[in-house]
C-alpha cells in the first residue's frame, strides 16, 4: 500500500479563508487543526494526497493561503472518480451529488476519513471491472489531470492494442457504429469515459450528477453523438434505436404514423425532433400532436439520459397525458403544476432530480419563478 494522505478543509464562505483542516493516513495517523504550517508538516513527503472535490475546491483555497503541493506530489480526487466507478443507481452510499454524507457536521477530519473509505471502494470498483473496460478507461484518462494519479497509485498501465477498436467491440450495439470516435476522444476524453460508464450501467434511469454536467457541459453533446445521432450510412444500433418507425412500434405499439392530406406531417415532425432541429408544427385538434414530441422525448431519454420539458398552461390536459402514458405502461413522465399538493410536488421534483423522468410537463405559475432554476 503506497503512502497516501486524505484531507479536507472548512472554508469561511464570506472571507474565503481556511478555517479548519483535517487529514488522515494509514495506519491511524490524524491531524485536525487550524494552522496551515502544522498541516504541511503533517503531510511531510507523502507522495499521494487525496480528498473529495479537492482539485476544484480545497486546493484552490489552500493556494490562496500559501500552500501548493510540490510538483512530485500526486493529487487524487474521489469526486471525479465517483460517477465513473459508481454510475448505477443506487449510487455509492457515501456520495450525495458533490458532497460526502458525513456523521458529523463541518468536521474536516471526519470528511477526510470518509474520503478514504470512498477511495478504497473506488479502487475495488475499478478492479472489479472487466479487463477490456479497465484498459479503455486507462486509454482515455491516463493523461487527464483528474485521473492520472489514480492509475499511478494502483499501478495500472494496460493499454488496448487499439482504443477505437476496443470501444467499438465492447460497446457493439450500444453506440453508433459510425460515430467519429477518434475526433471526439481527442477533444473530450474524460466526457467519453463518463458516457461509456453510464452506458455500461445498463440502467435507463442512471444519470450523471449535476456537478458533472456543470463542470463538463460537453458530456451532453458527447452522449448525443454516441447514442442519439442517426448515422447517414445506417448501422444496427441506429436502425434499432434512432429510427422513428422502430421507436413508434417499440414504445407505442403503432405500425405507422398518421398522414394528413397525403402528407407525412406526424412522421416529419418526429424526425425533425430526433435530429434536434428547431421546428413549428401546427395540427388540428385530435390530430396527433402529442406523439410528435412524446416519441422523440422518450427515445432520446432512453439513449442519452435526456429530459424534455413541455411548457403549457393546460394543467388538466397535461395530467391526462401523463395518466394516459402510465396506462400504456410508460412511467417516465411527470407533471408539475399548481394543482399538485406539496407532497405531490415534492415527489415530482424527486423523480426529475433522480433521472426517473424523460418527459416533464410544466405549467408556469407566478409562485414558481424558481422552478426551472431548481431543476437545472
Protein architecture, described:
The chain is of the alpha/beta class and 376 residues long. The chain folds into three domains: 4-128, Ribonuclease H-like superfamily/Ribonuclease H (Nucleotidyltransferase, domain 5, 2-Layer Sandwich), CATH 3.30.420.10; 163-227, no CATH class; 236-375, Rossmann fold (3-Layer(aba) Sandwich). It has 18 helices and ten strands. The strands form three sheets. A five-stranded mixed β-sheet has the order 3-2-1-4-5, with helices on both faces. The longest helix is centred in the N-terminal third of the chain and has 21 residues, at 108-128. The chain is globular. The protein starts with a strand and ends with a helix. The model has no long low-confidence stretch (mean pLDDT 91).
List the topology elements:
Layout: E1 4-11, E2 18-25, E3 29-33, H1 36-43, E4 48-51, H2 54-64, E5 74-77, H3 78-85, E6 95-96, E7 99-100, H4 108-128, H5 131-141, H6 145-153, H7 163-170, H8 181-187, H9 189-200, H10 210-215, H11 218-227, H12 236-241, H13 244-252, H14 265-274, H15 289-304, E8 308-311, H16 315-327, E9 333-336, H17 342-353, E10 359-362, H18 371-375
Parallel strand pairs: 1-4, 4-5, 8-10, 9-10
Antiparallel strand pairs: 1-2, 2-3, 6-7
Helix pairs in contact: 3-4, 5-7, 5-9, 8-9, 9-11, 13-15, 14-15
